[in-house]
Amino acid sequence: MGKQVLYIEMDNCIGCRSCLAACTQCGGHDNRNRNYVMDVDPFHTRQTIPLMCLHCVNPACARSCPAQAIQIADNGAVLSALVEKCIGCQNCTIACPYGIPKFDQEQNLMYKCDLCYDRTKDGIPPMCASVCPTNTLQWIDEAELARKQEQHLLSNGKWVASQPFNPLEGETNVRISLPGILQGREKLF
Amino acid sequence: MNHAFASKLAQRAFVIVCILFVLSYLGSRFFTHIDLALYGYIVGTLVFIGGFLYRFSAWAERPPTKLILKKGLKLLFRRGTSKTSAEHLLTYRFIWNRGWFRWTQHFLVGWGCILSALVTFPLVFGWMYFTMEDNGYYHVVAMGIDVMKIKADGLLAYLFYNALNISAFMVIAGVCMALYRRLKNMQARAEQTFFYDFLPLYMLLFVSVTGLALTGVNMFAGGVGHPVLTIIHQFAVIVTLIYLPFGKLAHIPFRPMSVLARNYREHYGAQEQKACKACGTGFVSAEQSADVVEVLAKNDLSFRTEHGYHLAELCLPCRRKYRMFRFTGIPTHQIDAKEANQHANG
């Protein structure tokens, strides 16, 4: 099995927030979730999309950290701040283009999604993906990712995009497909 | 004067060594009270200073570090520095908030090391020594000045003689707690590595056990092997000192940065808040927002939106909503709705 990645198929999200609840249960997360489920058009539809750290290849949080507290693991996971190094300046929360890192004033410590490194380093899916009932969050290997990519030949050539512009700010280790991509397809659930 | 040195690092090293030399000259009453049995520690300290400055200079050159150091140092004499320093550097209040077990282990190791450093370095550089002018009484001489006269068999003297034994017990207890946590805690087990997390603990343990053994052989074994043990202990301390700026223990000399960071946030936060470009709420100091934009630009990261502003100028909920806009084309960040509750109860 090749390298595994977290893949988000946004079209599937039903807003159940299981991923938030599961996140609290990951070892070391201390009963607090580190991900988000966002409403897309709050006054008109119930459409939701999960948002979590996308584990940038060139992470702005780590680049802006004066203490070098944010380390990148061998599987590309951008880890939560090292407790002994984090000085509590909160540069990372300002720098992150997706608004992901959270900050604990009492503990003077930033915490963020670490892709459940204690699980994913052994090939076990992160908590959010392991509980997602609609396959919005999937933990798949690169071969499967390529198969999915072949299924969705979009007119703009970018299989992740139902938008004309790039939805992300740079290359990320978490892969996404945008809402609309599954239109007209028969779902398995 | 700026051209007298090859680099800032060389200048800093020269100044620090000069200060040490002058302090030792004065403190040891013009080198009449240098304990030559401890010369190994002097060499170790000098190598440590070189290593520390090398590491510090490389670190301080990073754009975000440079900014916080520069602005934080300017605000050093701000009201509140003493309180923040006490909480961050002396009582470790923020670690208490992370859990009593971690606080206890850290307090024992931290204060054990500080206590032993406060005893060892003054003795090594001759800043503190004992003389016996009247029989049965020691004079404690600090920086060449008689500071107190203590009874040689009194309680205070007992504490002085045993300061390093007490600190050794503190460090051993703290290190054992830390090792226990590293063996049991699943999150720690996932992320720890031998060289980064365990090695410093083993080094501290080795230093403490050999130090305590020096007292042990004197008390219970008539001093058997004392000369060899002294060398082993000295060697262990020197290796730990030289290693200190490069591994996990580097957080000791770098921790004061957190006081600078707190000052930086409090001072500029009170001056002017940055209003979110989408919803208008202040979420961070205008200074820090601008600084982060500058730091990111130096790293070739420019998160410009099609509205013309930088993503660092949006508050966190609006930044997340803006991403929904990029995903779907629906301008979620312009819809005046409070973000749904994002905190699940574990």
Automatic annotation (TrEMBL), chain A:
User: Is Membrane included in the keywords of this UniProt record?
Assistant: no
Q: Which GO terms describe its molecular function?
A: 4 iron, 4 sulfur cluster binding; metal ion binding
Keyword 4Fe-4S set for record: yes
Q: Which InterPro entries match?
A: 4Fe4S_Fe-S-bd, 4Fe4S_Fe_S_CS, ET_IronSulfur_Cluster-Binding
Q: Which Gene3D superfamilies match?
A: 3.30.70.20
One Pfam match, given by its short name, reads Fer4_11
Q: Where is the 4Fe-4S ferredoxin-type domain?
A: 4-34, 44-75, 77-106
Q: Which UniProt keywords apply?
A: 4Fe-4S, Iron, Iron-sulfur, Metal-binding
Report the superkingdom from the record: Bacteria
Family matches, as PANTHER family: PROTEIN NRFC, PROTEIN NRFC HOMOLOG
> What is the designated name of this protein?
Electron transfer protein
